[in-house]
## 1
Amino acid sequence: MSVKFYTKDEKNGLRDLAMNIRQLSVAEIADNVYGLTLYSKKNNARYLVCYEHPSLIFDLQKNLVFYNAKTTNGMNCYDFVQFYENCSFMNAREKVNQYYMERDPRNLVLYEYSHTKNAVYKHTGISLPDRENGNFNEMKDYFTQTMAFEDNVIDTLILNQSLYMSKNIHNAVFVGFDENNDPAFALEYGIKDTPYKHEVAGSFTSIGWKQIQDHASDIVIVDSPMNALAYLSIDTEASVIASKDITTLYNMVKYYQENSDKYDFMKNVKNITYILENSPKSDLVVNRIKETAKDERFKNMKRVDSDELKRIYIQSMNANGEYQYTVSENDYDEVEYNDIRSFIDAMDEVTGKLQDQHLEEERTVE
């Protein structure tokens, strides 16, 4: 019997993957992998039973499957595959991981449990939250005032339906579109007292979220829609593709390499850069992308230089005309780059100090 030993990096990768797989429904595995027929129990909508194996009971609220009513410990996706195929846990984990990385929710039967309605919904593809019928001012205020993002960028995204506010909870919803311009990816962000991030049911994670300018020759890769907004706020003409997070960045890049012929904008792209957090995890993902890339554009992609970021920020600010003075890169020597949002916060803080200094000088002259 051979034993596989994982490196520290491989263990970290498996841990990150497992965190994303927690959202994967056991019922989805049963239906799409094993072809089992699931239907609701009459006395409780949260439970599904299996036609082929009546002893299997799927609890959609807890996302667990029980072998029979007397079972106290439910099975998650890994446990269920191990049980159903009578294989080792390691083999079950590899099967589930492989399924997750290759799954396309647009072609799968999905199961979604509603806590508010205590009901199970069966659908294919993404299930977007209802859109607010009125204005999106609450969301716009959050992005432009609390987060200090560029208001013109927010307006553009709302206009092209890449961003909207949900109806009941008033979350910000980022929507990513596939090659047919159909919604296929979505993330909800809380914009109130306790911000949070949640991937919408049926979201095709590998597609990510993007904002592409017409005939764009350069594209920037980032690791979240929020970080993409931060970058777009200093370079409003940029084209960006954002993954859900750093753990899904590699699969997103792999998807666009393998499906570049389906997306017209990829035909015009000559240069690909990336802007990520300065961290070992980011470096590992970038190295993996470059080592496995078959597309030379991804193999040769480079980090956006921090000095270039400063130049873009300064050009944008000077072109704005809001300030009555001109700044230079030397004014921002103290600002160091760690991640895009903290970088912009630091640049804005220096700008505020420069503005106060300029006003004080004007008062002195008067």
Note: Residues 340-365 form the longest helix (26 residues).
## 2
Amino acid sequence: MVVATLLWSTAGVVTRHLEHAQKFEVTFWRSLFTVLSLLVILPLMQGRGVFARMRHGGAALWVSGLCWCGMFTFFMLAIMLTTVANVLVTMSLTPLLTALAARIFIGHRVPTRTWAAIGVAGFGIAYMYASQLGQGVSMAGTLVALCVPVSGAANWTVTQHAHAQGNDVDLIPAVLIGAVLSSLITFPLAWPFQASGHDLGLLAGLGLGQLAIPCVLAVLCTKVLKAPEVALLGLLEVIFGILLTWLGAGEAPGHDVLVGGTLVIGALVANEIVAWRGRACVQI
């Protein structure tokens, strides 16, 4: 899971070294290379019959794929519109938005500790965005980035609802569906292509090493690790991503991002640690 978060975190620093590729083209090529990678990886993992089984995966599989499409597309667009730190801190809201979505749509109880975490994290995000508005910074990238955790929360809610109905969603084929949809949606918007050979090499690396492989690793890890462990380790992407972009592209996070991000990450960590200890006490 640590390796998965490290691979995920390379998106920002790599995109900062692109020469000519623009917003939708970057998204298209990364999604397309992800599709090509998964077309090789999936049969190796699940056999050649995996594609036939996808046709009978049910509505939840395709809705999950649509959610993955949103996550992939909005993430890359946001990375091209605003700083990497802004995007990653905003993305870290996924567990808290998931808790809210589960409460609203499938009736899951939200513990008091999670409500407190939502409040603190919300304050951190509000501080970060308010400071940027005060500095005249465009909010377009931030608003696009906010669609990533919304898509993630929708994805988790759909898969949990399907699980409760006795229909478990195979997430790796759902990732493939998401990448296919993302590439189809962004293809007409990416035309005419401007990417150089250097750009295509970097974007191919993102498709395989930043998306396909870590997504597969993360899905496998969820079968072994407990949910709080996955959530806590997943937060490493924020730290790794900001550091890599800072060191590898000279994009230093602003004071507002550091303060707001610290509140968000602190609230998430506290929420998961309390949950972890509570489960440990029950087991004892």
Note: The mean pLDDT is 87.
## 3
Amino acid sequence: MLNSRTFRRQFINRFVLIISTLAALLGIVMLVWILGDVVLRGFGVINWNFFTELPVPPGEEGGGLANAIIGTLVMTIAAALMAVPVGVMAGTYLSEFGKHNLFGRLVRSLSDILVSAPSIVVGVFVYLIMVKTMGHFSGWAGSVSLAILMLPVVIRTTEEMLRLVPGEMRESALALGAPYWNMMMNIVFRAAKNGMATGIMLAVARVAGETAPLLFTAMNSPYWMQSMNEPMANLTVTLFNYAMSPYNDWQELAWGAAFLITVSVLCVNIITRLILSSGRSKP
């Protein structure tokens, strides 16, 4: 009886191990396939004109996506400037003051829900409160939608990183007479800075490839950006529009935009891993 049970456990263990390995290999193959296709079809489109010129009508030679690249950078930076300070302060509150009270639990639950909220829902929400109110699409509305998507990631990462700082460090600083704010700025934040930076970069990587919220907020534009209070060109919506078009030259630019977005997100993730690993290697 014991041998049959052992055989059954070993069989199930090997079966699950084989299925898990095949599933992992399938995921790796699909990832390599997608990345390879994007690199092969998008790398050849990347040239100087791609980064310096405006889009041209179908059939004309040249042209690029300079306005979309600048628009994406501007909206992402604006979103980070909105989300990071609020997210860091909210995460600090949850870690230091809202561990057990009702308001802290409410904020934590809402943040967890917002992490998994579909981005298109955020886009519709910002459309209703900003675009309909102002009467036009704008870069500000796009930045707000991206900031909302970034916010829960920054909040939860900040809270978790601050909680990893040993309580003895806080007690030692307070015992030496340091004010609470001084202890937080010079002791706790310094100890958790690598993890907090990782969360911020992960939040940026999350919104870098978002299309749905920008369709409802920033829309798109074939012109240079004049102000944030008007429809603004961005890579993701331009990629969507060009990929759906019947023109070969626009489709090639869409592959170039896909390559640029993929490489940018990949670089951000690699830098994030390096920051996290360097923080763990320090004593």
Note: The first helix runs from residue 2 to 42.
## 4
Amino acid sequence: MNKQTSVEAMQIGLGLYRNQLNDDYYKFARQLGVEQIVVHLENYLASNDGGQVALSRGDSDGWGQAVDGYWTYDTFRALIDELEANGLKLAAIENFAVKQWSDVLLGGPKRDEQLAALKQMIRDAGRAGVPCFGYNFSVAGVWGWVRGPFARGGAISVGFDAGAIDADEPIPDGMVWNMRYAAGEAGKTVPPVSQEEIWARASYFLNEILPVAEEVGVRLAAHPDDPPMEALRGAARLVNQPEKYHRLVSINPSPSNTLELCLGSVQEMSGGDVYDTVARFARENRIGYIHFRNVKGKVPNYHEVFVDEGDIDMARIMKILKVNGFAGVMIPDHTPEIHCDAPWHAGMAYAIGYMRALLATA
């Protein structure tokens, strides 16, 4: 059973990519007054300088080659010990590695073999003290974004315009979640995936994994689709409207069935209300952790912007969370780059400073 003490009040954390797990970034977090860390262990985009990822469609291999192998008790325990030695705590692991569950997402022949390995990985995570695992059940993944001067003052950020891309461009064989997990067969593509099929795959996954996660005290937290299109690259999207989050939770009532509530992604959706969505799931204790970011616009055209300049009233969100008893971690996710010698650091510092002020006055 996971013995790690749960977060008892709202806390602000920082997300770090695999290549950022070092003393420089730990010191940066401590200087911001951050204690909770959400860690990405997959290798996507990790070669980008300073961790400021080129959030876009990527090249012919999407965001790159997926890492091999499953993480073990030793992996998790070493990470937690390293963070604790630097005055930090692990709030969550964000995302499974693509190779760990490629056939779970694709409904392939190795699905049950991969699920068995995922179950052992969750057991190891719980024994090591990992409180939460974020995941994004998607075939196309995050795809179609472009970088540009979309935020205040021309700050570089990312945006999505369905009219400027071929949203039906097929996924090459050997790719899923915009990552290369196998060489693939030339000229072959991933078959189309219907709404019925993506929900059947997700339901199978949750009903297999959640009993294990609940037993060892690990919460699974589902990220909504971004971009929240109805379909992308021939594959239906799972959670592209707020009511589909309700459907996901209803698949299995386990308390480990929670949400990685990305405010920007919810606001980008064509329907629903971000404030009602946040209030409901905070009240029901269904939020694993929160991506606290802001956007302008909705699908099929939106831009990510600074936390204080988008369509969401973030002060109102903070008050809703407090009133409805949310006791968990919020991270900026990604932010616009601020024009200076350390654009990622400056953007994160700005977002976290703003969040700390909102929390102090909520």
Note: The two ends are 34 Å apart (CA to CA).
